[in-house]
């Protein structure tokens, strides 16, 4: 009976594992389409992306980190760290000690990036490996004195085709080989800001262009012979929500702007008071019912956004769809940066390649979980991080994955099998031990007096 149970479980384990042996060293391409909201997949048609998913895996929702902005989330993906840990806490930052400023237009100082080690640096420092990058935030900065062997200085004017051509050339021709590469594209984020995600007509056009680019990516990988051996992850940094001129929070109505400096604006505003912090806080606290105001020490623990000197003394967090302004104008029809528990802020993740299952769908992971998964695929020892590798095991062919409902089902099934077998054995034993009818009347060889003559 024990042998039967062991055989049952070993069969299940064997069925869940895949063959992970490959003759070529593992390679990984990480692609980000900025601002690709998860539910775009349900609301629009993506024939090329859906074909990619059918042959690979899909994570329907990726819970990103707070604040849900571009630079912080892209750095969390490649470090596995919350923003308070990796130091890129916003798209605009100020350091009170050094008096330095950071913005998405002035981001090349390693000072801002050196609080973490991104995966391309770890990969670059391995023997007989190199990294490559096309525009991913931070890849053109010498982080810990290291850049990828091949990278492009950021310029939004460079076409997707040129970025893709560079990446594929580096993947094919580099020595030592490029085993990790990143590719970044600004859409659909730019159009989401311009039109808002509820503008179906314009977003349909933009998202069709995105799908065509994914088709171009897959086609090029196939033509160059990279498709079967290259692991490809397609994901994003955040989603997008609709804004309105009827949902404005005007700080100028609440407090004199000479009493504070605004380091980062909407929808999470970073406030550096010039006068008494309590006075500024008390005025902002009653400014709008559609905005939460936190002293740094009171920021909710679930945001993991407190323990870093670059986080300012007061943080303002607008409700979804509300915009913090200094006048009455609405800067964008769509925006992101809001509470990371909102589904509108969540991106998705799709992946294909020898490391991944085919035709598998998963509900959710955290964006910080992507880093330990990538390290596993590449055979890299991950740096300390906030991710959980176990959350992504179900995506990978070389991992035994079992979720709670499946585990309960297996246990119940095993118990039923054991119960049935035990019952059958007991019944068989009882049948063998029951005395035969009239057995006491059977003659024995040593009987002297038979009953019937």
UniProtKB/TrEMBL annotation:
Alphabetical keyword list: Blood coagulation, Cell membrane, Disulfide bond, Glycoprotein, Hemostasis, Hydrolase, Membrane, Metal-binding, Signal, Transmembrane, Transmembrane helix, Zinc
Protein name: Bis(5'-adenosyl)-triphosphatase ENPP4
Compartment(s) of residence: Cell membrane
Highest taxon, organism lineage: Eukaryota
Residues that span the membrane, as ranges: 407-427
Signal sequence region: 1-18
Catalytic activity, reaction form: P(1),P(3)-bis(5'-adenosyl) triphosphate + H2O = AMP + ADP + 2 H(+)
Pfam families the UniProt entry points to: Phosphodiest (PF01663)
Xref: SUPFAM superfamilies: Alkaline phosphatase-like
GO biological process, one term: positive regulation of blood coagulation
InterPro entries tied to this protein: Alkaline_phosphatase_core_sf (IPR017850), Phosphodiest/P_Trfase (IPR002591)
Family: Belongs to the nucleotide pyrophosphatase/phosphodiesterase family.
Keyword Iron in annotation: no
Function comment: Hydrolyzes extracellular Ap3A into AMP and ADP, and Ap4A into AMP and ATP. Ap3A and Ap4A are diadenosine polyphosphates thought to induce proliferation of vascular smooth muscle cells. Acts as a procoagulant, mediating platelet aggregation at the site of nascent thrombus via release of ADP from Ap3A and activation of ADP receptors.
Membrane topology: Single-pass type I membrane protein
Gene it is expressed from: ENPP4
GO molecular function: bis(5'-adenosyl)-triphosphatase activity; metal ion binding
One annotated Gene Ontology cellular component of this protein: plasma membrane
EC number(s) per entry: 3.6.1.29
Protein's organism: Panthera leo (Lion)
Cofactors demanded by this protein: Zn(2+)
């Amino acid at each position: 009976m024990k042998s039967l149970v062991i055989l049952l479980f070993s069969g299940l384990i064997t069925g869940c594992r895949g063959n992970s042996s490959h003759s070529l060293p593992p390679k990984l391409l990480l692609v980000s389409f900025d601002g690709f909201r998860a539910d775009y997949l349900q609301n629009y048609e993506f024939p090329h992306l859906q074909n990619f998913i059918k042959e690979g895996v899909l994570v329907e929702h990726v819970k990103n980190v707070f604040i849900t902005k571009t630079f912080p989330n892209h750095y969390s993906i490649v470090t596995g760290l919350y923003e308070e840990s990796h130091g890129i806490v916003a798209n605009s930052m100020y350091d009170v000690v050094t008096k330095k400023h950071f913005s998405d237009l002035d981001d090349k100082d390693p000072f801002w990036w050196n609080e973490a080690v991104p995966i391309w640096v770890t990969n670059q420092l391995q023997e007989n490996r190199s990294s490559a990058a096309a525009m991913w935030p931070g890849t053109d900065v010498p982080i810990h004195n290291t850049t990828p062997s091949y990278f492009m200085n950021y310029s939004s004017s460079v076409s997707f085709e040129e970025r893709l051509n560079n990446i594929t050339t580096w993947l094919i021709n580099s020595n030592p080989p490029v085993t990790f590469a990143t590719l970044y594209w600004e859409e659909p984020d730019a159009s989401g800001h311009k039109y808002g995600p509820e503008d179906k007509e314009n977003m349909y056009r933009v998202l069709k262009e995105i799908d065509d680019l994914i088709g171009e990516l897959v086609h090029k990988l196939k033509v160059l012979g990279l498709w079967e051996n290259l692991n490809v992850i397609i994901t994003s940094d955040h989603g997008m929500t609709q804004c309105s001129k009827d949902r404005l929070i005007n700080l100028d109505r609440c407090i004199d702007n000479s009493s504070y400096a605004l380091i980062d604006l909407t929808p999470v505003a970073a406030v550096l008071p010039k006068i008494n912090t309590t006075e500024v806080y008390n005025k902002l606290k009653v400014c709008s019912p559609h905005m939460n105001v936190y002293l740094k020490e009171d920021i909710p623990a679930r945001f993991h956004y407190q323990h870093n000197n670059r986080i300012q003394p007061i943080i303002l967090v607008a409700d979804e769809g509300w915009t913090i302004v200094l006048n009455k104008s609405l800067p964008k029809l769509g925006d992101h940066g809001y509470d990371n528990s909102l589904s509108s802020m969540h991106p998705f993740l799709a992946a294909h390649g020898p490391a991944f299952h085919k035709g598998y769908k998963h509900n959710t992971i955290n964006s910080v979980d992507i880093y330990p998964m990538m390290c596993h695929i590449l055979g890299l020892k991950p740096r300390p991080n906030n991710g959980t590798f176990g959350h992504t095991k179900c995506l990978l062919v070389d991992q035994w994955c079992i979720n709670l409902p499946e585990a309960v089902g297996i246990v119940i099934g095993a118990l039923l099998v054991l119960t049935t077998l035990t019952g059958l054995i007991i019944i068989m034993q009882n049948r063998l031990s029951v005395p035969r009818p009239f057995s006491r009347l059977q003659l024995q060889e040593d009987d002297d007096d038979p009953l019937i003559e």
